[in-house]
Amino acid sequence: MRRRCRTSFIMRNPALFQPIHVGTLDLSNRIVIAPMCQYSAQNGCMNDWHLIHLGQLAISGAALLTIEATAVLPDGRITWADVGLWNDETESAMGRVLESIRRWSDVPIGIQLNHAGRKASTEVPWAGGRQFAPNESHGWQTVAPSAVPYAEGEVSPLALDHDGLRRIRDAFVASATRASRLGLELIQLHCAHGYLLHQFLSPLSNRRDDEYGGSIENRMRYPLEVLEAVREAFRGKSVSVRVSGTDWVEGGWDIDQTCTFAKMVEDRGCDAIHISSGGLHPAQQIPVGPNYQVPLARAVKSAVRMPVVTVGLITGFEQAEAIIATGEADMIALARTIVYDPRWPWHAAAELGARVRAPKQYLRTEPQRFQGLFESE
Ligand SMILES: Cc1cc2nc3c(=O)[nH]c(=O)nc-3n(C[C@H](O)[C@H](O)[C@H](O)COP(=O)(O)O)c2cc1C
Predict the structure, then answer these.
(1) Which atom number of ligand 1 is nearest to the Cα of residue 112?
(2) Is 119 in the pocket of ligand 1 (CB under 6 A)?
């Protein structure tokens, strides 16, 4: 239905701005902010940088803001400067940031929980990102499903025994409990980009010969156990999973296995699935380009009923609208795009003919040619 506003702005009811439910969460549109590591924490504690970064994104008009990959244990950090949620100090530091944001924005906020496994103990990317050996000041011994390093020449991870698996699963649960106490509305379990839970899924990194390795059922066992435990700890709130749809390496994790995994997580009460790709193996060949991960999301969408999120080089308003309108995915996630243009959802709404939420302090800043664009938060 078309509705003419006070000026030339024509309302068109675009698919990108239709509301959607993710578990118990009501989202006002289909735009989510993907998790983005800032490598700026001290001993896992958030600080003013995170308030600036998350604060600007909280008033972007996107329907959901996802906090960066957050380590459930110190040895689960990708770098020494990752955010964590493993003790009272990290919880209260995150609490301070959230309290400030909450005072001014009611955007739903989720958190990505992660353990980096064999990809932990590295330098921050802008300083080169190399692995630190355990005897270096910013380094520690990494763990993984099997004693197989990510890249040649790296210090081998220790293969986790059953006590180690229990310790890490319990850490995910403890972080989920802290996330619930902080009032976070969604947990995204990080099973993508070559981190620990993905390392269990992929036959390239999982060489175990016990019940956690070998067949796809065995490789999925640990991520599913963690999901079930997190689901239980985060009762009444929404849980999603981010998974790599493929390793982009011959003989690795692929889209058929992803579809099987997606059905299994849905059966265990997962509320949405977010399809990214790659990150597990240095030999990956990724055909990077606009929409390059959309076919992976479309394949998963035909296997499950829960909402499917796509991500990766989505920059255009019509591009995003077409993905949702043609049913290739239910939501789009933005990372680089929304840092480059933190008002992307406003511009998309203006271009596509929708209304978008804006803070009351900004209502008078509505562009004259788009009168009727803003709804009050
Ligand atoms: C600065 C930066 C940090 C990122 N950190 C994370 C992260 O914490 N967790 C994650 O799953 N992906 C992370 N990613 C990947 C993004 O979430 C996203 O999947 C990817 O950048 C593709 O989307 P885009 O083309 O909109 O940037 C990061 C990307 C960037 C650019």
Answers:
(1) 9
(2) no
